[in-house]
Sequence to fold (199 residues):
Amino acid sequence: MFRPFALVHALVVAVAGTSAAAEEIPLKEIWAFKMPNTKDILELDVDREPLVHALLAQIRDTWNQEKGMVVPGEGRDALENVYRIRVNREKRSQVSPDEPLSLVFFTNATGHAVEIQQVERKGNHFTIRYRFVPRMQADSPQYIALIPIGPVGVGKYSVEIDPLPLEKKYRDLGLSEPGERQINNVCDSFTFIALENER
Fold:
């Protein structure tokens, strides 16, 4: 049976979702490893079991596993949850719409520094914009960041991982843009669904 009210309601919801104002998540709220303008994730290991370096090693050794993650909690709670999933291989719990969440941005070794430039939410869509920064050093570190997004509400959400061009000062030196190999060593875009727990 045709229900015009339901159709109108669906259209209103769809339009509201696409026209939502963009909301930026400040870099200073992000816990990250060796990224400027963020909080040092190693501080989450102080006086507790150190997790960051073991987690980075596990990500490197199991790179072809899932490359997009959202976890419950913020700060140390989020770090422990990433560790349980990636290192201890515990089953992931359902994403709750009512608890704080963190997006997990991570890399394998790329030969470049990797820096998050901007994180933005627009409706049910998150965009993480990052940039490669050429390094003169011979080492090639990995990177990880925990991005707090708070409770998101019931719905399906998309997370876009968006590489930005090299800064002009590097292009002026004749350095070329990172290629597919480098980009493939950064986590992927993904989607997740937040649902109420069944009672």
Helices lie at 4-19, 52-61, 76-86, 168-171, 180-183. The radius of gyration is 19 Å.
